[in-house]
């Protein structure tokens, strides 16, 4: 989206509008709301109605909640949760739930568009009954509106009186489609202030935009086209070493793609005088899994922490939800494995854990913390996509967090501030995160998901299966030197990407300082040249395929 | 001091103009000379290619391609695929097999053999599918095998190598011990003193002990998982050796390998217990040469998937002729499918070299005919490759291969045309789910399945016409 000239033309028009309305706050907000709706209309057509519905309903509930107390207040919160999560579940998870139910319980439910069959039959329309389309950005704006309602319920904020202001908050176009997820408490106060941007901030905004575009075009797209997509499309045609490179490439790609988007969103918002939170903080510098999740997709991690992990009991206690989740896990595992023994053993373990927590409360708190963490990560995994692979990815990360939390009490080397200790931590964390992404990437598109034949389980697993198989069973099938030679260019780009990523913060701050201290004309020239280079890289033909001899 | 929005507009607007104009300027210059920078074609060559391609392929619109793909999705649980509705006359031109009367008679002979398959047979009717990396992982072959075995019986994946570096959907395979793989395609090992590679063009040596474990593939076709018997093919065994076999259900068995020089052909067969899903094969000997393992049935169709990465299909005449002949003797071979050409496309610079390649390829076809005179031969041309114009001689290669096939009384199936002609690979790669890999050369499993079904559709259309004619 940000790589298309049409977006920048749109932004230019918005800036023209802003130049007239910069001091008229209410009008400016109304204008931005309208512009955002127009933007969403262009990406999602009639789903703009859904966005409008979410906006109006949460705004209305917010106003009512402010005047209510006790049960009525709670009922309003539940209504908001029901509407928001209901819509998200229907559009994002209907297929998954129907399939999961069929796999686990043998049901024959189907995910359908409500009323479509009736319309087709009675009005002669030709709506595809089974095609539930996913509205763009629904996961992001749903979490955004949820945070507003929950904060209101907890009396952390006051309701937004103007629908137009609230609409501007929910639909703010730079971050509407892919975040960062912004909180009302951070954004609404900005809506009450007139346009404000210092010259240095303007240059910083240009830096964000250029950095984001470079990440997206040079690192994300190039590496995806010339290495990652090839490996994931046909894992079995690549040696384990190539698969490993593909996985490392994917780790860089997914970071560059997502953080690139966030950077541009932050830069564009800043051009309009709004400050969005930083979403990524050099995540691959993390020395443990816990630190990684504090650096990666920060707006989501903190959302999950504040609205899921802590209400669930956090590191204090187990809640009813923790117990339900734990028991559901046992039921799920026994159904998936079709083994009653798993159910009995799992239930036994839960009962023993409960008994121990009664006798030794401190152990109980620890166990509850682990389970809350695990549940948060599993749900976080499902937020990313509706498939078993995402669930497994979340679960693996949850396990990683649990192991880290458990081990740090007994292995103090994690606290050693020596370069080698940090280095080992960074390498281990990066490899763990990368390994888990086998399931994340395999679940997100290309690959074996449509493998022919007499499949009886979800075929996405097989991409992951093949990748792991190649990694562990066929690592050296192609001489490593040959692979490096064959992929020289893309590996060079990857090396550059990782080097830039691992660049010390002091150095990058110096570079940013230099950039933002430049004269505007020099800045313009540099921006122009960089855009030309980016355009050229973006338009370059993919590298030809390479044949390796097994 | 505030930075006004108007200053931002002044900053952005010229950049935007630059972004709009640059592609147009580039396009302008590209039309004159930039194509040269794209590595392969010169401008004149590109023009020539465009002219030549007219009439060779029938470019379809994206919608047409997607529609035709949609109609091919079949319910694979049925014995007769739903796409098998055409006969030879109603089949779309793009899917038709081409060949002389003699070539078609060969195919009818294969159909005759299919019709004469009985449960009491002691030999299956075999089909060899040799190809380049396009068929790796049992792609395309697996679809054909599954379809034909459902209709005419038979089970099992057929030939597999003792060391399988490229995982296949037909079986899961692992090896351990002192085993080394040698291939006649790709990089050759100059220390080898013979070329008795066998029909898979690959063999593995065992020095001391080695073990191959074969499991059914969890996501493989159902009939791939049904193994009635296993065969071991041994070429050289200077001091003799042993083979041991154990399975989940099959009790321990041991076999002696008699001493033999490289180039000899020994065949050892063992029955497997019903429902066997995993076998462990132990090899023991000094410089044992294992040219293949075969899992299958005594009757029905046995289709061997033999991918040769990087090969242009010129290696058959380079195999030890005596050994190759012995390896093929004793089999009831009905059909040979050769799917090559893609690997030479990037290196062919003009029509003359395309013809030279095809001429050499026709020698391979003649050689195969001499080895297996009663089998029909179908040549599958290379797929569409790359973006439009990226491989300017692709059409010439396809055309030359077709001529080579027809002149040697073999059948030709134009894969490029079947998938939509020029530019179709790009369309397949942009389809969701992806039908082609981003390298714009290889199919994804989904794409390979569609290709397999299209080819099967063509074969079954001829079969239907033959049945109608016979009755």
Architecture overview:
The complex is a heterodimer of chains A (550) and B (471). Chain A has 550 residues and is mainly alpha-helical. Helix content of chain A is 73%, strand content 0%. In chain A, helix 2 crosses helix 7 (163-171) and helix 3 (48-66) packs antiparallel against helix 4 (70-105). Chain A is globular and about 70 Å long. The longest helix of chain B has 33 residues, at 5-37. Chain B is an alpha/beta fold and 471 residues long. In chain B, strand 6 (241-247) and strand 7 (253-257) form a beta hairpin. Chain B is globular and about 90 Å long. In chain B, the strands form two sheets. In chain B, strands 2, 3, 4, 5, 6, 7, 8 and 9 form an eight-stranded antiparallel β-sheet that branches. Chains A and B meet through helix 1, helix 10, helix 19 and helix 23 of A and helix 1, helix 5, strand 3 and helix 11 of B.
Q: Which sheet architecture does the biggest sheet of chain B show? A: 8 strands, antiparallel
Uncertain segments of chain B: 32-78
Number of helices of chain B: 11
Average pLDDT level of chain A: 84
Name the helicity range of chain B. Answer: 25-40%
**What is the overall shape of chain A?**
globular
What fraction strand of chain A? under 5%
Question: Could you write a compact summary of the structure shown?
Answer:
With 550 residues, chain A is an all-alpha fold.
Jot down its keywords.
heterodimer; A: 550 residues; mainly alpha; globular; B: 471 residues; alpha/beta; five-stranded parallel beta sheet; 11 helices; 13 strands
Could you outline the blueprint of secondary structure elements for this entry?
The complex is a heterodimer of chains A (550) and B (471).
Chain A lengths: L4 H17 L3 H20 L3 H19 L3 H36 L10 H8 L14 H16 L9 H9 L1 H4 L7 H8 L7 H35 L6 H32 L17 H7 L2 H12 L10 H17 L3 H20 L1 H24 L3 H23 L8 H24 L17 H14 L6 H7 L1 H15 L2 H12 L3 H20 L11
Chain B lengths: L4 H33 L5 H11 L8 H9 L30 H15 L9 E7 L9 H12 L5 E3 L10 E13 L18 E15 L12 E6 L6 E7 L5 E5 L8 E6 L6 E19 L4 E7 L13 H8 L3 E8 L11 H21 L4 E5 L13 H14 L3 E3 L1 H4 L5 H7 L14 H26 L1
Parallel strand pairs in B: 1-10, 1-11, 11-12, 12-13
Antiparallel strand pairs in B: 2-9, 3-4, 4-9, 5-8, 5-9, 6-7, 6-9
């Amino acid at each position: 989206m940000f790589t298309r000239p049409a977006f920048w033309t749109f932004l230019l028009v918005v800036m023209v509008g802003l130049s007239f309305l910069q001091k008229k706050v209410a009008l400016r907000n109304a204008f931005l709301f309208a512009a955002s709706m127009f933007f969403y209309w262009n990406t999602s057509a009639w789903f703009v109605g859904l966005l409008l519905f979410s906006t109006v309903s949460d705004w209305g509930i917010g106003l009512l909640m402010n005047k209510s107390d006790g049960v009525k207040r709670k009922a309003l919160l539940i209504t908001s949760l029901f509407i928001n999560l209901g819509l998200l579940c229907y559009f994002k998870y209907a297929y998954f739930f129907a399939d999961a139910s069929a796999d686990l319980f043998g049901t024959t439910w189907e995910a359908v568009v409500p009323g479509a069959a009736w319309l087709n039959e009675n009005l002669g329309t030709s709506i595809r009954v089974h095609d539930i389309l996913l509205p763009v950005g629904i996961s992001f704006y749903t979490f955004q509106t949820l945070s507003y309602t929950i904060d209101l319920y907890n009396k952390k904020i006051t309701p937004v009186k103007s629908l137009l202001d609230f609409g501007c908050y929910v639909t703010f176009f730079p971050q509407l489609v892919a975040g960062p997820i912004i909180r009302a408490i951070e954004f609404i106060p900005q809506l009450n202030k007139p346009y404000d941007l210092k010259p240095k901030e303007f240059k910083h905004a240009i830096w964000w935009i250029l950095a984001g575009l470079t990440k997206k075009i040079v690192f994300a797209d190039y590496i995806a086209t010339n290495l990652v997509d090839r490996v994931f499309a046909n894992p079995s045609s690549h040696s384990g070493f190539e698969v490993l490179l593909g996985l490392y490439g994917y780790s860089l790609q997914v970071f560059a793609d997502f953080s690139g988007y966030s950077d541009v969103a932050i830069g564009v918002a800043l051009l309009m005088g709004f400050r969005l939170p930083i979403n990524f903080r050099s995540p691959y510098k993390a020395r443990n899994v816990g630190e990684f999740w504090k650096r990666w997709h920060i707006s989501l991690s903190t959302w999950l922490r504040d609205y899921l992990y802590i209400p669930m009991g956090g590191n204090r206690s187990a809640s009813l939800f923790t117990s339900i989740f734990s028991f559901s896990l046992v039921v799920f595992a026994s159904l998936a494995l079709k083994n009653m023994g798993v159910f009995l053993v799992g239930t036994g373990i839960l009962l023993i854990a409960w008994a121990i927590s009664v006798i030794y409360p401190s152990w109980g708190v620890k166990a509850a913390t682990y389970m809350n963490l695990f549940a948060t990560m599993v749900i976080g995994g499902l937020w990313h996509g509706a498939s078993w692979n995402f669930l497994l990815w979340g679960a693996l990360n949850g396990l990683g967090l649990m192991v880290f939390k458990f081990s740090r009490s007994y292995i103090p080397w994690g606290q050693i501030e020596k370069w080698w200790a940090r280095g080992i931590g960074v390498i281990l964390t990066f490899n763990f995160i990368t390994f888990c992404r086998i399931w994340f990437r395999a679940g997100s598109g290309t690959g074996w998901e449509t493998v022919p034949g007499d499949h009886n389980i979800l075929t996405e697993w097989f991409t992951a299966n093949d990748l792991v198989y190649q990694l562990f069973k066929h690592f050296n099938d192609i001489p490593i030197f040959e692979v490096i030679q064959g992929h020289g260019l893309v590996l060079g780009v990857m090396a550059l990407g990782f080097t830039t990523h691992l660049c010390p913060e002091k150095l990058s701050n110096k570079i940013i300082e230099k950039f933002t201290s430049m004269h505007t004309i020099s800045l313009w020239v540099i921006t122009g040249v960089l855009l030309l280079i980016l355009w050229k890289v973006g338009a370059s033909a993919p590298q030809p395929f390479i044949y390796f001899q097994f | 001091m505030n930075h006004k929005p108007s200053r931002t507009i002044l900053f952005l607007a010229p950049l935007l103009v630059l972004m709009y104009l640059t592609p147009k300027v580039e396009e302008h210059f590209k039309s004159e000379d930039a194509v040269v920078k794209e590595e392969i074609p010169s401008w004149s060559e590109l023009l020539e290619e465009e002219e030549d391609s007219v009439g060779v392929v029938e470019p379809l619109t994206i919608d047409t391609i997607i529609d035709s793909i949609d109609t091919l999705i079949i319910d694979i649980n049925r014995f007769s695929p739903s796409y098998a509705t055409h006969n030879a006359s109603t089949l779309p031109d793009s899917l038709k097999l081409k060949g002389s009367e003699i070539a078609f008679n060969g195919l009818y002979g294969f159909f005759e053999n299919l019709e004469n398959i009985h449960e009491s047979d002691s030999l299956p009717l075999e089909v060899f599918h040799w190809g380049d990396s396009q068929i790796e992982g049992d792609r395309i072959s697996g679809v054909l095998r599954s379809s034909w075995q459902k209709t005419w019986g038979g089970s099992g994946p057929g030939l597999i190598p003792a060391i399988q570096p490229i995982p296949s959907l037909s079986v899961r395979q692992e090896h351990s011990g002192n085993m080394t793989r040698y291939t006649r395609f790709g990089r050759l090992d100059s220390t080898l003193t013979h070329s008795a590679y066998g029909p898979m063009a690959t063999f593995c040596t065992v020095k001391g002990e080695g073990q191959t474990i074969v499991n059914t593939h969890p996501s493989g076709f159902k009939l791939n998982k049904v193994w009635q018997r296993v065969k071991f093919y041994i070429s050289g065994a200077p001091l003799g050796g042993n083979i041991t076999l154990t399975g989940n259900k099959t009790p321990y068995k041991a076999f002696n390998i008699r001493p033999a020089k490289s180039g000899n052909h020994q065949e050892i067969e063992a029955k497997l217990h019903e429902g066997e899903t995993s076998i462990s094969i132990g090899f023991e000997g000094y410089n044992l040469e294992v040219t293949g393992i075969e899992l299958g049935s005594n009757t029905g169709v046995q289709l061997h998937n033999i991918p040769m990465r990087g090969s242009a299909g010129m290696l058959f005449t380079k195999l030890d002729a005596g050994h190759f002949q012995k390896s093929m003797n004793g089999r009831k071979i009905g059909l040979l499918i050769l799917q090559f050409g893609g690997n030479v496309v990037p290196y062919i610079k003009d029509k003359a070299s395309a013809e030279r390649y095809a001429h050499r390829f026709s020698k391979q076809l003649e050689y195969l005919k001499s080895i297996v005179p009663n089998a029909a031969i179908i040549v599958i041309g290379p797929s569409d490759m790359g973006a439009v114009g990226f491989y300017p001689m692709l059409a010439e290669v396809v055309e030359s291969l077709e001529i080579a096939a027809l002149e040697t009384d073999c059948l030709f199936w134009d894969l490029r045309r079947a998938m939509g002609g020029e530019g179709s690979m790009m369309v397949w790669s942009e389809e969701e789910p992806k039908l082609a890999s981003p390298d714009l050369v290889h199919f994804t499993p989904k794409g390979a399945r569609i290709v397999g079904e299209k080819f099967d559709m063509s074969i079954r259309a001829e079969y239907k016409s033959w049945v109608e004619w016979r009755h």
